[in-house]
Every structure is written in structure tokens, then in C-alpha cells.
Amino acid sequence: MANVSIRKYKTSDYETARFLFAEGTKEHLPAACMYTLTTPRFYFITFVAFTSVFMGTGSYVLALTSLVALLAAGWYGLYSEFHGLASRFLRKDMLDIEKSYMMSENACFWVAEIDGKVVGTVGAQPSTDADDELLLLHISVARDYRQQRIGTKLCQTVIDFARQRGFNAVCLETANIQHAAINLYESVGFKKSRVAIRPSLVHQYTSFTVIDYRYNIKS
């Protein structure tokens, strides 16, 4: 196993940190597509669409065409969701990492480094919902460097930071399709605190659930 070091973000890490975050977000698209294809809601909608067009036109060709169009629209919706999510954060806190994370006593951004190469990222900011909670944000590990406990070390870095700053808990948000992330968080000690479906059309159609996790820091 390679020697991994976790250090605070430097300005020279900017492009790599943004790239890792964006790629880590967009790579969930295939899993999202596969998950959608297994949901009862997907089968119900496609069945209704196919039968409605066939009964209205009597044409198998038109019915199949409508089904293909529905699948294409669903894929485009998922594509827009994940690429849009990455773009939104790249224009928000990830646009100026130094200002967003490194200029506040209770916020920070770290990178994981192997042989001088940045292979992972994680950020931490105080929650806007509770004064005693720290948010774990933008954790990502380069695909070629996974299964080396880098994610565990990044999570532990945030937990240690929260403990040092006097926070009572570290909180984060993930999705039910992110199985590797869920396994990581639970192995570190995070506990599921809430499961919900966002009111967006994509989330309603796909039945994606957002999962909140919480790590309570012992005093």
C-alpha cells in the first residue's frame, strides 16, 4: 500500500481538487441509470406509456418509438442532474476554495497525496442549521487510488478537526445509489439520521433517496 499523506489545501492544488470533485460527482451517472431501470415506478411508467400509445394508434412502431423517447428523456434528465450538480458547486464554494474553506477558523479543506500527486479531497464547513455541527463536504478519491483507505483517512481528518474545534457532530449527505460511499461512512462510524426524496422531478421519477449521516463526537 502506498504511503498516503493528508495535508491542508494549497493554491497549487486548485485545478486538481476541482477535477477530482467534478469527476467524482459525474461518475455516479451509470449507477443512477442502472438503479432507475430496477425500480417499480420505472416499469409502471414505461408500461403506461407503451400501452397508451399503442391503444391510441394501434402501431407497435409508434409505441416502441415513444418508449425509446421516454428512455432518452430519462437519461438526459439524469445526465443533467449529475453534471448540473457538479457545475453548481464548481461555481459556488469550489470556485474559490481558499476563501470558502481556508480563511475561517472553523472551516478547512484537505487533500490526500501520494508521491507528490493529489489523489483525494475533502472539505469541512460549519452547518447553517446547527451551531454544534460540522459538515463533511466534497470527499472524493481518484478512481485508480481507491481501496487504499484514503477515504477513511479523509473522514477521520474531518472528525479530528471537528473535535479540536469543539463541535458535537460531523454531518454529511449522500444518495442511496452511492454504495461505496455508504459503506465508507458506516465503517468509520457514521449513523443514518434521515432518509428523504427531494421534490425535484428527477428524484420523484427515479425514487432516488437522499441519506443524511451523523457522527457524534464523544466529549
Query: Judging from the principal axes of the Cα atoms, what is the shape?
Result: elongated
Radius of gyration: 20 Å
Question: Using DSSP, what is the number of strands?
Answer: 7
Give me the secondary-structure category. alpha+beta
* Total domain modules: 2
The helical percent reads 40-55%
Helix-strand topology string: EHHHHHEEEHEHEHE
DSSP helix count?
Answer: 8
CATH architecture type of the largest domain: 3-Layer(aba) Sandwich
Largest sheet: 7 strands, mixed
Strand order of the largest sheet: 1-2-3-4-5-7-6
Low-confidence stretches: none
Q: On the 0-100 scale, what is the average pLDDT?
A: 89
Provide the CATH top-level class of the largest domain: Alpha Beta
Strand content: 15-25%
CATH superfamily of the largest domain: Gcn5-related N-acetyltransferase (GNAT)
Oligomeric grouping of the chains: single chain
From the N-terminal CA to the C-terminal CA, the straight-line distance is 33 Å
CATH fold-level assignment of the largest domain: Aminopeptidase
What characteristics describe this protein?
alpha+beta, Aminopeptidase, seven-stranded mixed beta sheet, transmembrane, membrane, N-acetyltransferase activity
